């Protein structure tokens, strides 16, 4: 079965070629597409993507997982049964066409945070995608001394994307040296046994997350945070950060934490 069809490519969107697809679990996969030379974005932003399989393609917001210097564009996606986009998107193969709207946007950008020392990137599942972009951007390490990437998933297989990302990054000639000793991954599972278990939200409330990392609890004088996950996770995490004294910021009003509210379904 192919996801391609004879529908004309809509105007004012990029039609890009899939170059790589990697499936992690029956729920998660990653893919890379060619990057149009005129497509510019800030690491951490999202863009609308779709497939040329209908007269009016269905578009969904996808965080760009690759950094702004990358020659290709990477996405990390969930596979939703009967999901209008993802039931087809999960079948794409190299050579297929993916549609991408031209204007990226989003709040998980470095410019939306006031300067600080330590940056927490808090995610569940595919919420790690914008952080996959940001941890590969040298600017993140120019602005922050320490970066802590936090991801909670149901099972170990779902943590593979972030684990491989961080391993590869530390081996990378360009960014590896900058990130060495300054980027750490705190990964937990909730439904399968692993080294670290529990929701990051609970581990922040109990203080265990900070103990594990050997850092003081979140302090608005030095700590900054970005959040990306499900609606419930955003709400719970935001409340915890506000309890620690952090204040939500935006592109036009930088502050001490930011939240991304666009997500894939
Ligand atoms: P749990 O297994 O306890 O539901 P999903 O794949 O459903 O999006 O969930 C991804 C991860 O996010 C799971 O480990 C899940 O834990 C966790 N999670 C779900 N809701 C919340 C929440 N409100 N706060 C923090 N983590 C959450």
TrEMBL record:
CDD domains given in the database record: FNR1
InterPro entries: Cbr1-like_FAD-bd_dom (IPR008333), FAD-bd_FR_type (IPR017927), FNR_bac (IPR033892), FNR_nucleotide-bd (IPR039261), FNR_type-1 (IPR051930), OxRdtase_FAD/NAD-bd (IPR001433), Riboflavin_synthase-like_b-brl (IPR017938)
Keyword Cell wall biogenesis/degradation: no
Reactions it catalyzes: 2 reduced [2Fe-2S]-[ferredoxin] + NADP(+) + H(+) = 2 oxidized [2Fe-2S]-[ferredoxin] + NADPH
Cofactors named for this entry: FAD
Sequence similarity: Belongs to the ferredoxin--NADP reductase type 1 family.
Name of the protein described by the UniProt record: ferredoxin--NADP(+) reductase
Keywords: FAD, Flavoprotein, NADP, Nucleotide-binding, Oxidoreductase
Known EC number: 1.18.1.2
Pfam families recorded: FAD_binding_6 (PF00970), NAD_binding_1 (PF00175)
């Amino acid at each position: 079965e192919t996801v391609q069809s004879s529908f004309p490519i809509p105007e004012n969107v990029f039609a890009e070629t899939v170059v790589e697809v990697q499936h992690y679990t029956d729920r998660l996969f990653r893919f890379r597409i060619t990057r149009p030379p005129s497509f510019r974005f800030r690491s951490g932003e999202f863009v609308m993507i779709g497939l040329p399989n209908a007269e009016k393609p269905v578009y969904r917001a996808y965080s760009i997982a690759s950094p702004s210097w990358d020659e290709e564009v990477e996405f990390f996606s969930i596979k939703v049964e009967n999901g209008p986009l993802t039931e087809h998107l999960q079948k794409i193969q190299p050579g297929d066409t993916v549609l991408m709207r031209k204007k990226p946007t989003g709040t998980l950008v470095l410019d939306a945070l006031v300067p600080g020392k330590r940056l927490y990137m808090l995610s569940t599942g595919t919420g790690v995608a914008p952080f996959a972009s940001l941890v590969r951007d040298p600017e993140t390490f120019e602005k922050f001394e320490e970066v802590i990437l936090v991801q909670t998933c149901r099972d170990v297989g779902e943590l593979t994307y972030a684990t491989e990302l961080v391993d590869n990054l530390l081996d990378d000639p360009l960014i590896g040296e900058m990130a060495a000793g300054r980027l750490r991954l705190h990964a937990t599972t909730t439904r399968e046994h692993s080294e670290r278990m529990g929701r990051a939200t609970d581990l922040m409330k109990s203080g265990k997350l900070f103990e594990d990392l050997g850092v003081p609890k979140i302090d608005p004088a030095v700590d900054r945070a970005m959040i990306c996950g499900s609606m419930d996770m955003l709400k719970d995490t935001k409340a915890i950060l506000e309890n620690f004294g952090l204040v939500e910021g935006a592109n036009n009003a930088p502050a001490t934490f930011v939240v991304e509210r666009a997500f894939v379904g």
